[in-house]
Write a sequence for this structure.
């Protein structure tokens, strides 16, 4: 096993030079405590490919079946449609939910461990469609906690498919 030499500079650059390998330079922020580095920070973005039929006045899990990206393979887009991150910390979680028609009330919901955590409602209006956006910061323990996305509409119809209509994402903001 070799020796590790750290040569720091006031600019934030640190040269890491193992005695048995080439020199590597890393820029570290001026911080106290744990510093996260790219590579172990779970993040995903997924969307509903086609329209999903729904019943009136029933909370229905959104079947986000296509991943845009999934950095740590923590989002299940085939069975449970849930995000179960492997790093404990605080996550920014977002949902955009497209409904059938603006004449119907639409609610998007973020669930943590099977229970509602955040509701966002779009009231009844007029027009050709509805979009309910929700966003919150949630602590997840990195092992058993998970996030799911639900929707509710005052009349039957569909959640609108397509990446611009119905999508969700989450990213680690700060490790615990």
């Amino acid at each position: 096993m070799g020796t590790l030499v750290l040569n720091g500079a006031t600019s934030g650059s640190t040269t890491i030079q193992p005695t048995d390998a080439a020199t590597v330079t890393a820029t570290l922020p001026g911080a106290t405590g744990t510093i996260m580095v790219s590579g172990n920070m779970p993040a995903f973005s997924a969307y509903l490919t086609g329209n999903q039929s729904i019943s009136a006045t029933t909370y229905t899990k959104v079947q986000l079946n296509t991943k845009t990206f999934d950095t740590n393979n923590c989002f299940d887009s085939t069975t449970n449609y849930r995000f179960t991150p492997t790093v404990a910390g605080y996550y920014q979680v977002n949902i955009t939910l497209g409904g059938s028609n603006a004449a119907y009330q639409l609610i998007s919901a973020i669930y943590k461990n099977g229970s509602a955590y955040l509701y966002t409602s779009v009231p009844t209006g007029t027009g050709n469609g509805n979009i309910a956006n929700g966003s919150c910061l949630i602590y997840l323990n990195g092992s058993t906690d998970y996030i799911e996305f639900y929707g509710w509409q005052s009349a039957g119809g569909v959640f609108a498919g397509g990446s611009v209509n119905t999508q969700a994402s989450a990213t680690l903001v700060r490790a615990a």
Observations:
- Residues 43-175 form a domain with the Jelly Rolls fold (CATH 2.60.120.40).
- The mean pLDDT is 85.
- The chain is about 0% helix and 50% strand.
- The chain has two domains: 1-30, 43-175.
